Amino acid sequence: GSTYSSKVFRVTFLTLAVSVAVPLLGVTVLLDCPIDPQPISLKEPPLLTGALEPNTKLRKAERLWENQLVGPESIVNIGDVLFTGTADGKIIKIEDGEIQTIARIGHGPCGGHEDEPTCGRPLGMRVGPNNTLFVADAYYGLYEIDPDTGETKTLVSTKTLIEGQKLSFVNDLTVTRDGRKIYFTDSSSKWQRQDYLFLLMEGTDDGRHLLEYDTVTKEVKVLMVGLRFPNGVQLSPAEDFVLVQETTMARIRYYVSGLMKGGADMFVENMPGLPDNIRLSSSGGYWVAMAAVRPNPGFSLLDFLSEKTWIKRMIFKLLSQETVTKFVPKYSLVVELSETGSYKRSFHDPNGVTVAYVSEAHEHNGRLYLGSFRSPYIGRLDLQHV
Questions:
Q1: 3-state SS, residue 249
Q2: Which of 60, 275, 355, 370 has the greatest number of beta carbons closer than 10 A?
């Protein structure tokens, strides 16, 4: 009798499963998918050994100004005064521990995800030679801001056509020492910042990715095209090349002026995470903050999905970006690269206990200031004590 009842159970279970799955599948097929994913081939992630060996060094960081600012993506300093841009569209000055809003590029209301395009989202930030701030706003473009008066000047607007196309997702910038040239990234010509997960998961190489703005002639030139989610940018210490982080591909490319358009070489390939911003380190190398990790040993969702476009379609037919984000492990990682791109050391915070969602590591006076694209604080790590 037991085999008979287990057979009945199996048949009943299968019938039930099919009766649920078929309509669900039908609905899924009919649902629109917001993205058109392209297969991406990634190499197996590097083993987390040697300089990349997991540790808890980032947990030694302290959280500063907690709950007084939200998503301080990029951080710069003029003397000991810090500046950052936040998720609610503000350009903030922090002097003697006091927080002050000095400028706003967009306008309110600034609350949710849907307000971002009008509110503005300051991302990359740099200090020019005359101690003015250069800011890349994801929605509005490239700006120069007087840190004392908050006076704001548009350099490159996203409304302006550049080689027949508007900028869609202005992300980061790097400025020559004489302040003449600004190199900046436009992460996509289809998606805006609020849809960065669509951009990442779609894997397309649709944007004009590295651009150059000449502050004297006011000309904008497109230098590189066809990158997948170009993100942070950094001039080399000798200013003889520009590094561009290609987030989706977990790599860094470099651009040498004078090469043919897009004639760029690899600086670092197959990184242990998805690189966000890159900044100079005092040792002559570079600090790279990872937006997500590709654990090895371990399971990397991004690598698993890279060539499975049908699964990506299913996921985004059924789930919102916000929901999908919750499946990405909160693992914080900052690596220091040598001037040639080898790994010198790495600071980890598995599970993002102390500092989460690190977007940038800015070194100043022996300390690493850690920006975040979502957290309500700036992290600060004393390099003497790690």
A1: helix
A2: 370
